[in-house]
């Protein structure tokens, strides 16, 4: 049976999600996945906020990083982050729904480049992240 790229991405995401205690514990939801792309969301709660009453940068980074992970693992090739850089553009606050939209920019050999935009429910950009991935040995499920 031959899978479409979208079916492979979905099966890869299901396999990853089943073991992804961190994203689940933080309250993230996997909205969609496709080959080289993923969208995740999170509603900011009090325990996500820092002493300024804003969503902690580490939470925003985690959301972007998780979307990046699902995007770069979408081909059923075990892939890890090699380097990530984030720029915070605006604060998020309690009650905001953040969405991280990860898109593949380039994939050459074992190395990939992904851009992730984190926005709030009004479409305002909260952060932009660039992730560099590196494929390692193994698959997420047996094909």
How do you describe this structure in short?
This protein is an alpha+beta fold.
Entry keywords:
26% helix; 38% strand; six-stranded antiparallel β-sheet; 143 residues; alpha+beta; single chain
Topology:
Elements: H1 5-19, H2 21-26, E1 29-34, E2 37-43, H3 57-72, E3 79-88, E4 97-108, E5 111-119, E6 125-135
Antiparallel strand pairs: 1-2, 2-4, 3-6, 4-5, 5-6
Structure explained in plain terms:
The protein has 143 residues and is α+β, with helices and mostly antiparallel strands. It is built from three helices and six strands. Strands 1-2-4-5-6-3 form a six-stranded antiparallel β-sheet. A hairpin with a 2-residue loop joins strand 4 and strand 5. The longest helix is centred in the middle third of the chain and has 16 residues. It is globular and about 50 Å long. It starts with a helix and ends in an 8-residue tail after the last strand. The mean pLDDT is 96.
Helix content: 25-40%
Query: Proportion of β residues?
Result: 35-45%
Main beta sheet: 6 strands, antiparallel
SSE class: alpha+beta
Number of extended strands = 6
Subunit arrangement of the protein: single chain
Helices and strands, in order, run as HHEEHEEEE
């Amino acid at each position: 049976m031959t899978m479409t790229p979208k079916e492979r991405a979905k099966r890869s995401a299901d396999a990853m999600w089943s073991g992804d205690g961190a994203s689940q514990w933080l309250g993230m939801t996997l909205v969609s996945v496709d080959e080289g792309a993923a969208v995740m969301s999170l509603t900011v709660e009090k325990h996500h906020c820092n002493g300024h009453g804003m969503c902690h940068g580490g939470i925003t980074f985690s959301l972007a990083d998780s979307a990046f992970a699902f995007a770069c693992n979408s081909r059923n090739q075990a892939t890890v982050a090699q380097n990530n850089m984030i720029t915070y553009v605006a604060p998020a606050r309690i009650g905001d729904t953040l969405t991280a939209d990860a898109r593949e920019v380039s994939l050459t050999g074992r190395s990939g480049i992904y851009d992730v935009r984190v926005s709030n429910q009004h479409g305002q950009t909260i952060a932009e992240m660039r992730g560099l991935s590196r494929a390692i040995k193994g698959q997420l499920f047996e094909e």
